[in-house]
From TrEMBL:
It comes from Oceanobacillus polygoni. The keyword Transcription applies. This is GntR family transcriptional regulator. PANTHER family: MANNOSYL-D-GLYCERATE TRANSPORT/METABOLISM SYSTEM REPRESSOR MNGR-RELATED, MANNOSYL-D-GLYCERATE TRANSPORT_METABOLISM SYSTEM REPRESSOR MNGR-RELATED. Residues 5-73 form the HTH gntR-type domain.
Amino acid sequence: MEKNQSLHAYIKEELLNRIKSNEYKKGEKIPPELELCKDFDVSRTTVRTALNQLTLEGYLVRQQGKGTFVADQKVKQTLSQTVKRYSDQIAVQGKKAEITLIDIHVVPANEILQQSLDVSINDPIQRIERVRKANGEPTQYEIAYIPWDIAPGITKEHAETSLYASLKEKFHVHIAKTTEQIEITLADERSCMHLGCEVGTPCFYIETIAEDDKGKKVEFSRSFFRGDKTNFMIERNYQLGE
């Protein structure tokens, strides 16, 4: 145990190592609390604190009356430069991707959209509300805004495939750059309704502004990702000598 590390943090780390090393396999029931208490020579309260944190973070799942089990692996998504669609990123993980359109309609631009999309107040903006799933489980709730004059008449078919691919193929809009800001937030009533989680569940929150090859802002989106179902990979390439 590292210096200044609490007992429950040490146990959590040890259990997480067992999960990631596949000693505790996906779907497998982990040892009961009393057995873990003997294993680590600690109190039940200490073990329970570690298990609660691993459950909150999505590594374990509790089944009433049955015990605690190793959860399915989190959905991995790439934040660094990638041309892969969501469905492709999910497919290589052995999961089936699904995008469901909740609602699409035109709204007048407000101050936030004016700043984010370089449009004028009251310009027509298409508001596209979607949920992404992996193996039927919601992982991302997204609201995207695209000016009408950029891609007039976005349809359900466009929204339930790859929106960026549809912009390119149907509207000749090429996404050349995205700027993303990521924060940690807690799910509110609206997001948890679509993500199938409880109010207050930790989520990643990402705001994205997409620009075309001329530097024009063509999309602004707000996305909520379940923290217990998703993690992100960031890959950086450096020039020699840096």
